Amino acid sequence: MAEAAAFAALWVPFCRKHDIEPRNPESYFGLRRDPTKNKRRQDFVRDRRRVKREYDEFKVRVNGLPDAIRRRSDAFNAREEMKQMRRMKEAAAAGDQDVMIEVVKVKKATWMADGTHWPGTWAVTALEHGKGDHASILQVMLKPAMAEAMYGRESGEQLGIDFTEVDVRLPMLVYVSREKRPGYDHNKKAGAMNALVRASAVMSNGPFILNLDCDHYIYNAVAIREAMCFLIDHGGEDICFIQFPQRFEGIDPNDRYANNNTVFFDGNMRALDGLQGPMYVGTGCIFRRFALYGFDPPPAASNSTPSHHPHFVVAETDSFRPQSFYDDELNPSFLPKRFGNSSALVESIPIAELQGRPLADYQSSLYCRPPGLLRIPRPPLSTSSISEAVAVISCWFEDKTEWGDRVGWIYGSVTEDVVTGYRMHNRGWRSVYCITAGRDAFRGSAPINLTDRLHQVLRWATGSVEIFFSRNNALLASNRLYFLQRVAYLNVGLYPFTSVFLLVYCFLPALSLFSGHFIVETLSVSFLVYLLVISITLTLLAILEVRWSGVGLEEWWRNEQFWLISGTSAHLAAVMQGMLKVVAGIEISFTLTAKSAVDEEDDAFADLYMVKWTSLMIPPITIMMVNIIAIAVGFARTIYSSRPDWSKLLGGGFFSFWVLIHLYPFAKGLMGRRGKTPTIVFVWSGLIAITISLLWVAISPPQGSEAAASMGGFQFT
Ligand SMILES: O=c1ccn([C@@H]2O[C@H](COP(=O)(O)OP(=O)(O)O[C@H]3O[C@H](CO)[C@@H](O)[C@H](O)[C@H]3O)[C@@H](O)[C@H]2O)c(=O)[nH]1
Ligand SMILES: [Mn+2]
Asked: Cα of 165 to ligand 1 centre, how many Å?
């Protein structure tokens, strides 16, 4: 972190000077296109070369850190040991028995450059210095900047870069690691977010908060400004967050397992934008801090005339702080009970409320922020606010408060994001979906391996089942949740259950081939009409998704395929897991989504071809096998039959084939790298299929379709 903060002093002014995008040096320097495109300043090439060189050196230094830290720690530890020895010798000389008897072993610590012990996890695990057992750590890596622009002649001087006209200020940067103790439930990401919200409330109290996963980065430097336009605009006071679509890098060009999730991000989420707003999907989201605190939204500006809301009458004398809708709720004597025992935190809340309001303009003077309020210079960071921030990230701070329950990120779900957003919508807040033109706002990485992908979907689906069986079920929502939004949230909790029906659909065609009966006894008019209506509805939905949301046809098809793959594996498992939790109280663990290792030189997508066994694969494999065998059986029967009924074979075969082509990416995933495993898999499955079909023919020789019909155990009428 210290290295990164130091490099930022060069990198950030460079980006400002030359309008660099993206502002992640690794992806910027990795761009394949011509870096000089649209660059007109004469010194660009020289600056870029110098910054690139610094960046490479920075990377090498970071690579060397584990070694450097170990060497430093060894040296410090050895010195400590020496000191100890000397003390022992002295004690022995003085004849002090107690010290002699005490077998002194110096505890191996990890040392920081300034000669102090690193408070977190030590290289050699020790008491109070292990994973899940250490004190709060809070390090101000970059101090808050001054209020006025600072032009940096000196900053670039030793590198020969001219920053005379560039604002070289950097934002405050703080490293936070909350206290962890065995025996405490730390509530994973939600708990981490809440600690961050409190620490930042005490240290900077920015009225808006950007939340990014550790595997995402900013790809468009002006995206945040776009979000601000919604949040501080007149009429935007009841917006709780601005969600950006999740976009991914390092996914195979075919997007075999629909990792891009385009139908969700460009279809569903955009559609929700027309209702009460998109769901919160955990990353790439800018919150209004005050909305995170569990308050109701202010009444919409359009109907907040003074006559309707007596709260809004602005007292002439109170010109700085307009009367608040929240005056009752923000009574300092109630707040500690909800937010915990920190006066600094409690005092920051009304300020966040005021600063988060829309800017005053000529239309709305009632619920607004006075002009210039955010430009008032902040007091410099004091030691007392730092120690207060350390206090609010201790692991007992949330005891007997409403953090995680009503305030902040909500606990108790593996999809804390959906629940957190739902709670806000349920209070009547709106959200906005912001698709930035031209450049994606943020980018991240996704699992490209079949197994990891299935586990990811399993976690999401499990979260959904949990939501369905919890008080966050949309059926129990308040009447502030719009009707259609409620339907959408209901769908979020319900979709894993469709896997049960999907499973039936996948076996039906095979059943019909085995039994020699088509799904219906005869192709009646009513059956065909049903089929037609369903097909047309599905086609219309597909057209809507493809045409309106601009999802490519191939991407759309990948989504369809993966819907069936995940439906028959992960969703099914999630339903069972969820039931287990509800019925037997067995907990579900959060497995972190594995990230693909992009920098493997020989093959960028090596991870894609890795086959890692998981029991989630059993149902789709079974479906595939059964359908292949069924086609073989049906075919054999028809050939050997005295009166072959080809239309039945065609009917059953078509639906079987339909199931199989959905599972094609799954089959490919099982085979690993092309050319290695597939032959053996093909041989075996072929052999098994032929054996079983011959067996079938031998056991029940076809006696013509009429006889077979009377024998069949299944009647679909
Ligand atoms: O114990 C934990 C686990 C996760 N994280 C964070 O949570 C993020 C999401 O985890 P990841 O393994 O990347 O899961 P994904 O499936 O990629 O994440 C999606 O789904 C999660 C909910 O299941 C959301 O929290 C994420 O924001 C959303 O991007 C990580 O980046 C971490 O920043 C923690 O802080 N603590
Ligand atoms: Mn992720």
From this structure: 40
Any atom of ligand 1 within 6 Å of the Cβ of 417: yes
Cβ(588)–Cβ(538) under 8 Å? no
Radius of gyration (C-alpha) of the chain in whole angstroms? 31
**Residues in CB range of 122: below 8 A, 6 or more apart:** 108, 109, 110, 129, 130
Three-class secondary structure of residue 388 per DSSP? helix
Q: Give ipTM to 2 decimals.
A: 0.95
Instruction: Please name the residue whose Cα sits nearest to atom 36 of ligand 1.
Output: 189
> Which residues lie below 8 Å from residue 360, measured CB to CB, with a gap of 6+?
368, 369, 370, 371
Please name the amino acid found at residue 359.
Answer: L
Cβ(576) to ligand 1 under 6 A?
no
Which conformational region is residue 620 in: left (phi greater than 0), alpha (psi within -120 to 50 degrees), or beta?
alpha
Ligand 1 atom 27: the closest Cα is on which residue? 282
* Tokens matching residue 46: 């020289």
Least confident piece of the model among 173-177, 193-197, 328-332, 510-514: 328-332
Q: Nearest bound ligand to CA 453?
A: 1
**Of ligand 1's atoms, which has the minimum distance to the CA of residue 594?**
12
pTM, whole model, 2 decimals?
0.86
Considering only CA atoms, which residue is closest to atom 5 of ligand 1? 189
Cα–Cα distance for residue pair 513/520, rounded to 1 Å:
12
Residue 100: pLDDT over 50: yes
Binding site for UDP-alpha-D-glucose, residues?
A: 188
pLDDT (tens digit per residue) in 602-643: 556 667 767 777 778 888 888 998 898 888 888 888 888 777
Q: For 444-467, write each residue's pLDDT tens digit.
A: 998 888 888 999 999 999 999 989
Pick the closest to residue 172 from 348, 351, 389, 357 (CA basis): 389
CA distance 600 to 449: 15
Q: Whose CA is nearest to atom 11 of ligand 1?
A: 593
Could you read off the pLDDT of 137-173 as tens digits, one per residue?
999 999 988 888 888 777 667 778 888 889 999 999 9
